[in-house]
Amino acid sequence: MDALIVLDNVAKRFDGHAVLDGLSLEIRPGETMTIIGGSGTGKSVTLKLILGLMRPDRGRIYFRGSDVTRMTEGSLVAMRREMGMLFQGGALFDSLTVGENIAYPLREHFREMTDGEREGRVASSLSLVGLPETEAMMPADLSGGMKKRVALARAIATNPAVILYDEPTTGLDPANCQRINRLIRECQRKLRVTSVIVTHDLESAFLVTDRIALLYNRRIEFVGTVAEAKASANAVVGNFIEGNLE
Ligand SMILES: Nc1ncnc2c1ncn2[C@@H]1O[C@H](COP(=O)(O)OP(=O)(O)O)[C@@H](O)[C@H]1O
Ligand SMILES: [Mg+2]
Fold first, then answer.
1. pTM, rounded to two decimals
2. Higher model confidence: residue 74 or residue 240?
3. How many Å lie between the centroid of ligand 1 and the Cα of residue 18?
4. Residue 141 and residue 78: Cα distance in Å, rounded?
5. Which protein residue's CA is at the shortest distance from atom 16 of ligand 1?
6. CA of 167 to the centre of ligand 2 (A)
7. What are phi and psi of 147, to 5 degrees?
8. Alpha carbon distances (Å) from 181 to 44, 75, 115, 165, 205
9. C-alpha of residue 55 to centroid of ligand 2, in Å
10. pLDDT of 9-67, one tens digit each?
11. 34: Cβ–Cβ under 8 A, 6 or more apart, which residues?
12. Residues 26, 44: Cα–Cα separation, whole Å
């Protein structure tokens, strides 16, 4: 199997309401896959399923060929060590400094790391997102765009194989949007990570991604490269590109 992450015929419902049904998607090592879809279509749920934070009602999810839906808690923890997650809204710990926020997953996942190694990793992650020497700052002192960049630094600090981004550009002004998109591309290039982005920001998706998957009607309606999406005869894809679907 050459795909890194596989979703195979996944279904998920809440209180009798089907959110996903028959969703299948393969994510290849090193690629950037953007899942686009309107609000409430199950994008965040899809990321939580990949992380094993939720289990599907039906279907299988594989990471490196192992079935996430059947993993023990111990195997899930080991898998998540390889995944950096940029949660919607950033979700920094307000009572911790910037440095401690980034050190947090390192303490959790790499208990053998020395203080010096950890400080080095925090500093290099902050440099990569263009915020060097901000370790002592508090989240309250940061703008929305800076918070996202710190959250990205935290996601990359563990040197993950995969970074999952939930709405990385939502709520940002155009300049910060552009900066985050540039950083996502830099992470691809410099760290060679596999990236999974969920967003409803099609313009950003076109800029940063290798392939696009359109989540529509509880499943993947279309998957292809940016060029293929733009040239697609699929009416749903066309409507989405023209902004007729939200
Ligand atoms: N833990 C939950 N309990 C009940 N309903 C949920 C839960 N998580 C998500 N949902 C519902 O699933 C649907 C999809 O949610 P979500 O994945 O957050 O959408 P989005 O595409 O905007 O990220 C929504 O209707 C939401 O209310
Ligand atoms: Mg969401």
1. 0.93
2. 74
3. 10
4. 34
5. 42
6. 7
7. -60, -45
8. 19, 32, 32, 11, 9
9. 17
10. 999 999 999 999 999 999 999 999 999 999 999 999 999 999 999 999 999 999 999 99
11. 196, 197, 198, 199, 205, 208, 209, 211, 212, 213
12. 17
Residue 81 phi, psi (nearest 5): -65, -25
Task: Calculate what percentage of the chain has a pLDDT beyond 90.
Answer: 80
CB atoms within 10 A of CB 171: 13
Fold of 5-241: Rossmann fold (3.40.50)
Q: pLDDT at position 212, please?
A: 96
Q: Which residues fall inside 5 Å of ion ligand 2, going by CB?
A: 43-44
What pLDDT score was predicted for residue 172? 86
Nearest alpha carbon, ligand 1 atom 26 = 40
Closest C-alpha to ligand 1, atom 4: 14
> Of ligand 1's atoms, which has the minimum distance to the CA of residue 12?
12
CA pair distance 121, 144, nearest whole angstrom: 23
Tens digit of pLDDT for each residue in 159-199? 999 999 999 998 888 988 999 999 999 888 888 899 999 99
- The mean pLDDT of the chain is 93
Cα(171) to centroid of ligand 2, in Å?
Answer: 13
The ligand whose atoms approach the alpha carbon of 170 most closely is 2
